[in-house]
Amino acid sequence: MPGLMLLDTPSLYFRAFYGIPESMTAPDGMPVNAVRGLIDMIATLVRGHAPDELVACMDADWRPAFRVAAIPSYKAHRVATGDQEQVPDTLVPQIPVIEAVLDAVGVARVGVPGYEADDVIGTCTARATGAVEIVTGDRDLFQLVDDSRPCRVLYTVKGIRNLQTIDEAEVTAKYGIPGRAYADYATLRGDPSDGLPGVPGVGDKTAAALITRFGSLEAMLAALDEGVTDGFPAGSRTKIIKARDYLAVAPAVVKVAHDAPLPDLDMARPVKPRDPEALVALADRYGLDGPLNRLLATLAG
């Protein structure tokens, strides 16, 4: 499905870091497992999907203030000190190398102050005029699937060589909800990995039943306000009434932004390096000849 491919870059380089031994090092002994792994991931994706456009979406802010203001527990368990995320010490110095490699190769790389990579992905998707494929290990981005565009997620849960394609039918099959209703479902159910409490006492099955019955969170709340009792599983109506304060703010946290202020981007997939000299220097400094040669051959082909 040629079109626009959006990379959830932090998701991918974390996966590479944990999937490849730290014994993979630069000539000076610095671990470069995440760098090498991400380069090979991109080569595999380009070879298998041949996108016309390619964007590496970044976290300029991993825990945006607008989400924390709405729900203070948002990602609070992942804070190291101050506003810094818990990141392995040996991964931290690899991130600037990843950014430098992407820039030298010519892959569009973008992060927006105050927004997460998810929001960059959501905004790029909203602006796209053709097919979109999103590569991520984050289920939150299932909310963007849309068969009419089409927009689908290439889910990395089983590895980059065994991607699971998530479209509306797959969302329905997995969660028993309408294909575009994942954000509303996740709001009700909550997500401990992001510090989102959800509605106490409402689990996967009840959340799915409610969203399927009413079609959306907004429609469910409207029915509640109108005194409707039919369609609420036993005890769930009372639980939702008690959680109205949470439900008033949670959608702004769960839903990815569609209007982040993106800079102008040349999204075209590169066929040759943007900065060959810088790329040679990076290859020599960090011992990246093998993966970079594989990536460049794939891009050129």
UniProtKB/TrEMBL annotation:
Alphabetical list of Pfam families matching this protein: 5_3_exonuc (PF01367), 5_3_exonuc_N (PF02739)
Sequence ranges assigned to domain 5'-3' exonuclease in this UniProt record: 1-271
Keyword DNA-binding: yes
GO molecular function term, any single one: 5'-flap endonuclease activity
A GO biological process held by the record: DNA replication, Okazaki fragment processing
SMART domains xref list: 53EXOc, HhH2
Superkingdom field: Bacteria
InterPro entries tied to this protein: 5-3_exonucl_a-hlix_arch_N, 5-3_exonuclease, 5-3_exonuclease_C_sf, DNA_polI_H3TH, FEN, HhH2, PIN-like_dom_sf
Keyword terms: DNA-binding, Exonuclease, Hydrolase, Nuclease
Job description of the protein: 5'-3' exonuclease acting preferentially on double-stranded DNA.
Name of the protein in its database record: 5'-3' exonuclease
